[in-house]
Input
Amino acid sequence: MKKMSDLAKKEQKLAYKLLLPTLIILILIAFYPLGQVFYTSFTDKEFASSNETHFVGFDNYKKLLSLNIEELEPILNENGEQKIDPETNEPVYERPIDVLPREPVRYKEFKVFNIFGKRYVLGATDPYFISALGNTLTFTIISVFLETVIGMIIALVVNSNFKGRGAMRAVMLIPWAVITVVSARMWEWMLNSNRTGFFNILLDKFNLADGQIAFLSKDSLQLPSMIAVDVWKTAPFMALLILAGLQLIPENLYEAARIDGAGKVKQFFTITLPLLKPSLAVALIFRTLDALRVFDVFQVLLSSKKYSLASYNYFQLIKSREMGMASSIGVVIFVLIFVFAVSYIRLLGVDQNAN
Amino acid sequence: MFSKKSSIVAILLVLMLTFSVFAVGCTNTEQTAGDAEEKQSENNNSNDEAKDDEKVTITIAGGAVGNEYELTKKGAEMYEKEHPNVNVKVLDTPDLADDRLGLYLQFLEAKSSKVDLYQLDVIWPGDLGEHFVDLNKYGAKKVTDKHFEHIIKNNTVNGELKAMPWFTDGGIFYYRTDLLKKYNLDVPKTWDELEKAAKKIQKGEREAGNPDFFGFVFQGNSYEGLTCDAIEWLYSNNAGKIISDDKKITVNNENAVEILNKIKGFVGTISPEGVTGMGEEDARNIWQAGNAAFMRNWPYAYGLGNSEDSAIKGKFDVAPLPHGKGSPASCLGGWQLGVSKYSEHKEIAADVALFMTSEKVQKMRAVEGSFNPTIPSLYEDEEILEANPFMGELKDMFVNGVARPSAATSPNYAETSELFYKAVHSIITGEEKAEDALEVLELDLQDATGFETGEPTKSN
Output
């Protein structure tokens, strides 16, 4: 490495000086609260209470993340065969509540599953947290995937030449411009569980349902509803980012491809997609991080019926008033997002493009 | 080396992005509180604040269910008229008690002086008492014996009166007089009778051309309101009230299983599938549009049901809720006014609290909004009885209502209730079997409170 010239050194010093105010502000508004949350996560601090706070080490994390798998033995009748429940005609196994350990901490049933004809129960010390984690990951993966596909389609359409393209581009952004809480309320009305709700009217008109579908209370429909709301809202944002990427691709590449006889599909996969990778990566990172910390949609539409990580965090803070526990959930979300972000950068090679 | 550097930069950037997640954990606190403040100032633009700099401003955080907000505002104006140098603002807060608690906690954790008076649920004095002044020291002593004794007792924590009773509440049963007559039915007295009557009316009304008609609506969402509804179901079937007064966990018993399975059977038959997502206002909207034969709700729906734009004006009446093996139960509700310890004008705030809970204002609220007074003598007031004929009949019901176990479990009531309503919700949505859910609930309650299990109190 070459030795730096005096001028370069001077410039470097100046750069550091100019960066100093930013750094101070960052420390004040970012690192201080961040550190505070990390610290609180190791305590049993109670929210809005004068109770004394104690340092509890990793207890909060243990309580959130402990899992346990136990096998459920079949229950046999006198002949040594497995008992069959006369009501449901299902074979009878031990009950999870009798099998899962209770001391020193109690494991609660999270899920019962079968592998190779044997039945197991997955226990967790905090099943709500584990299911919040599952909900958030499912929500993130499906919604980001759909948003990318739909966003790509929209971007390709508004990137082509047609009359009214400018207006189209503006209109497309409306869902994204609406505040999430407002759009969530709007969707709440549309998803209403009787014929005052848009979707129930629609399904009823086509005789597909009786107009009484409870989208927001039925377990199997809750996550799909959340995903629908999120895709509606953020596909335009995805489209915008992809559109920006599309416009960076020089037109002459397509011309050359046409002369060489490449079809539209081939053009897309050999020119558009590879050259779009950097913008796509940025868009994906943005959306994934956003989706992982989803709060407003879940809070407004499902409240305590089903949690995302962030809304579970809120409920720990407000309902249980366990600020220490809430902080450790915050830290878990932080770590999760960090892992996602770093792996995106590695996989899609964003930092090489920075050069 | 360059690429290494840039990857560090990239990671730093990521750190910044990820950091924003803490918005939920901590910053959100201030944000939501800030939002509410904005809302508050918007609400009060009509009061010309610019002129009166010397005026003292007292802010009440109150409810906005039905016409509650308007009436609180009206009470505030009455006070302003008598005390021209005081400006009383009303901050409207979320409808759902859980959300409201969330907002309050944020103000209280910040020791904010922005709100002087808080409207407190009957279950909160125990859990939140440390943030409120002893009103006995501010002249409440003279008036406490005018109010119902059981509410004053509920609001007194360690000998300190934490809040003034403002209005009391109890779950009541609404029924359509016209439909009972049309189908030649009596007012249902038991859950079985309710189911039968609801089925009959629902079938008839649907055949008559209203496919949206349902027999019975109640509060089935996963929130505090479900605790109220469910404690009525349990108590009316001799299944106790979750935790008894002598601190025994009584919820896991056969009678509870029986009645919860019965209610589960209502969902999707005489009650809409969506009832498991309904709060007070959702149920009232269906009822008031004329799309339900029966409803469980609080008394506030009485006045609104008889308002000009109501489809069922003059076509309904109220009665005690149906019962099972026991006697009818009404969950004790109601709201109080407490003065924040962090208020800058505690004297004036306490005076406003005493004024708002006085006979005069309580009467106005009873006549115009069917808010049940906490002053027994008002139940004989002619104007009130004319507006709310049910108040006289159901007075005993309010007095002998079933209290949620907030005193026995304090300061863990919020957690207790959450465990309970989540368990009940999982039963009535069919996610869990009643037996299993109650057995798990019993263990959960043992963890949360440390109490022993015991036999439920019988209601008859």
